[in-house]
Design goal:
alpha+beta; 5-stranded mixed sheet; 4-stranded antiparallel sheet; 21 helices; 45% helix
Length: 587
């Protein structure tokens, strides 16, 4: 199903715009340097095709003949047609490498041209490249170019073009025809029924690579590259037969979705923790272009991008337009994660655009909670995951968590328990109930709440009599009483508050903390009133009375609270804190 829908997406994109995805036999790759030749193979110029500035310079994306896997000690035996790394195009040696090995790579590159073009004169560009290599002064002129040191030191690919042409030699009509012929003539592992098209086709032996971030460049979804993977006497691609055309189509579509252009434009690609998610539909849909904007962290150039995309989604029902009413278009979401030399499928979701839109809106509804004015109304997936990571670092986000959260959103399932545990753990470790953490806890608990449990609301719920929620509210009031007692104009407060010292114990084992804090509370209130904060003291007393009267008379402070109760404690604390300061500001 995954490969079939990707192959269909390739056909749809090629039908809409033939220049968007590569034709059979080609792939999109970055070209950094171009050797410009005249018809006799004389060097005219060495051009820098890189884009960007400084260390962020990267090659320009071009359609070039398809590459092949090359790993291990025999990698020098494989070269690409009319484009490649400088080690192959010019025989540039690696550090400490002998001249013989580097020359072997160069000869392999030249042989690859002759393999497809025994008679190079059929194409002016190919003929010029062959003549270039035959010239004795070709490389000495190259070495005099100001760009040569960057070619030697860099990792950018090199190709060729004729002086009077704008396209690369490997993109000429004759080269395209030759590659199309080679593509059809390759016999693969014989003719069998293709699992994607259902028709008898030439079966691909080894599928092209579809690398994702943090994976090897040769990583694949479909691979039988070792004898250990064979079964029933079948070898390589015959174990799961996929036709050459279908194999090329699905890998081209996936590489397009995972490609640099999509990632830079925030289109149809999203990084979720250590996983990469791609989106596509079986026909044109606004959600196809906006899905990544909805979940991704907005760029610095357009910080409101995320908010606009979500606002459009919320307003769709009001205007009665897609995506909320689109029950005809199927939408696909594929999550991939690096796994040694392969690619792991982290999640796979298929549904209609309308179903997905409703599930996304439910996700943001569940997350909604009161927030400081400087915070954005909607949290990106990255901020949610980061809120559970130690020291707020991307590399500390638990593995697989991103994929599990994404799956819960797409299928409207309970969020993974590890998300709730991560948020509660960070709150206890840092004694800080931040906006993202409070939102996570609220969303997680509401999705798993039992019938007898009250739903956590967006803002302070004074009617909520849940013990954990009430204790969270009470803990904030006691903390505020301590601050009112000790802070002065010259001293903003104590060096160590009761939150710094007791939050973890108060949320996990209330019986060990609250009796002691309540004994100190009258002293703090009295001191606050005497220091000129009589109004605050009265306000805090009313709050304490209002909360404690709702606590059960018997066993008001449990000896132990589970993770879900610690979550309610955190939300109660967060609600009371936000309401207290909001009330003071409005007053």
């Amino acid at each position: 199903m995954i490969l079939q829908s990707l192959a269909s997406y390739y056909d749809r994109k090629r039908e809409l715009d033939p220049h968007e995805l590569p034709p059979p036999g080609y792939e999109e790759n970055a070209i950094s340097f171009v050797v410009v030749l005249d018809l006799d193979g004389r060097l005219v110029n060495l051009e820098d095709w890189r884009e960007g500035e400084g260390k962020r310079k990267h090659g320009k994306a071009q359609f070039v003949p398809q590459s092949k896997d090359r790993t291990g000690k025999d990698s020098w035996k494989t070269a690409f047609l009319l484009w490649d790394h400088p080690r192959y195009v010019f025989g540039v040696p690696k550090d400490g490498e002998d001249r013989e090995t580097s020359q072997s790579r160069l000869e392999t590159f030249r042989r690859r041209i002759k393999q497809s073009f025994p008679d190079p004169s059929v194409d002016n560009g190919v003929n010029a490249v062959v003549r270039f290599y035959d010239r004795t002064d070709a490389f000495s002129q190259l070495h005099e170019s100001a760009l040569w040191p960057q070619v030697e030191e860099g990792n950018g690919n090199v190709s060729f073009r004729l002086r009077d042409s704008t396209e690369l030699v490997c993109q000429s009509t004759k080269v395209r025809e030759t590659l199309a012929g080679e593509f059809k003539m390759d016999s693969g592992v014989g003719v069998r029924q293709c699992l994607i098209s259902g028709h008898p086709e030439t079966i691909e032996r080894l599928h092209p690579a579809t690398p994702i971030p943090d994976s090897k460049s040769t990583a694949k979804i479909h691979s039988f590259n070792l004898p250990a993977f064979n079964s029933y006497g079948k070898e390589q691609g015959a174990n799961a037969p996929v036709g050459k055309r279908a194999s090329f189509a699905y890998t081209s579509a996936l590489n397009y979705l995972l490609g640099t252009r999509n990632r830079q434009n925030h289109k149809q690609y999203l990084r979720v923790g250590d996983a990469s998610a791609v989106f596509w539909a079986d026909r044109s849909s606004a959600l196809e272009d906006n899905c990544a904007d909805i979940f991704d962290e907005p760029s610095k150039d357009d910080p409101d991008l995320n908010a606009r995309a979500i606002k459009a989604l919320y307003e769709a029902p009001r205007h009665g337009v897609a995506p909320i009413k689109d029950n005809q278009t199927r939408f696909y979401v594929l999550g991939l994660g690096p796994n040694a030399a392969r690619i792991a499928i982290r999640f796979w979701h298929v549904g209609t655009v309308a179903e997905l839109a409703k599930n996304i809106l439910k996700h943001f509804d569940d997350l909604a909670i009161v927030r400081p004015s400087f915070e954005k109304p909607h949290l990106s997936l990255f901020r949610l995951l980061l809120a559970t990571a130690a020291q707020g670092k991307r590399e500390n986000i638990p593995p697989n968590l991103g994929g599990e959260v994404m799956r819960a959103i797409l299928e409207c399932l309970p969020y993974p328990v590890t998300l709730l545990q991560g948020a509660v753990r960070r709150i206890r470790a840092e004694q800080e109930v931040s906006y993202p953490r409070a939102a996570i806890v609220k969303a997680c608990l509401n999705r798993i709440r039992q019938i007898h449990e009250k739903e956590l609301t967006m803002s302070l719920d004074e009617d909520n009599t849940d013990v954990a929620y009430l204790l969270g509210r009470l803990f904030f009031v006691l903390e505020e009483a301590q601050w009112a007692a000790h802070s002065t104009k010259t001293n903003p407060g104590t060096n160590s508050t009761i939150r710094d010292r007791f939050y973890g114990a108060a949320s996990a084992t209330p019986i060990t903390v609250f009796p002691q804090l309540l004994r100190l509370y009258p002293h703090h209130i009295s001191k606050a009133a005497k220091s000129g904060r009589k109004g605050i003291a009265v306000c805090l007393e009313k709050l304490v009375d209002g909360i404690t009267t709702k606590l059960p008379a018997k066993n008001p402070f449990p000896s132990y609270m589970a993770v879900s109760e610690q979550g309610r404690f955190a939300v109660g604390y967060y609600h009371q804190r936000h309401d207290f300061f909001s009330s003071n500001q409005s007053a």
